[in-house]
Design brief:
The chain is mainly alpha-helical. The chain has helices at about 5-10, 10-35, 40-65, 75-95. About 75% of the residues lie in helices and about 0% in strands.
Length: about 100
């Protein structure tokens, strides 16, 4: 097995790709819900989506005593989008755009 195949088949690489795609999807949907003129590139959108998923799926059940959802379930994605929408609004206030 070549080194490239070992990297591509490694579970951590697959997990990184899945979380990056989740972050991108959640960040893009949040930007569609809250449109604006923020100059955010793809990396910042992915980071915003990942942070929104973290806020939605990790902190929200602990604060509001909701059940925990898998981040890759429909409920987890919806909660992640809600967290990312909040972060888009916070980004708008902080950067004044």
């Amino acid at each position: 097995m070549t080194y490239v195949n070992m990297v591509l088949n490694h579970p951590w690489f697959n997990l990184f790709v899945l979380w990056s795609l989740l972050g991108l999807g959640v960040g893009v949907v949040a930007k569609i819900i809250i449109p604006g003129s923020e100059n955010m590139g793809w990396i910042r959108t992915i980071l915003l989506g990942l942070a929104g998923s973290f806020i939605g799926n990790f902190l929200t059940p602990r604060v509001f005593h909701w059940p925990k959802y898998n981040a890759f379930s429909w409920e987890g994605i919806a909660i992640g989008i809600g967290g990312a929408v909040i972060l888009v609004l916070v980004n708008r206030v902080v950067t004044r755009s």
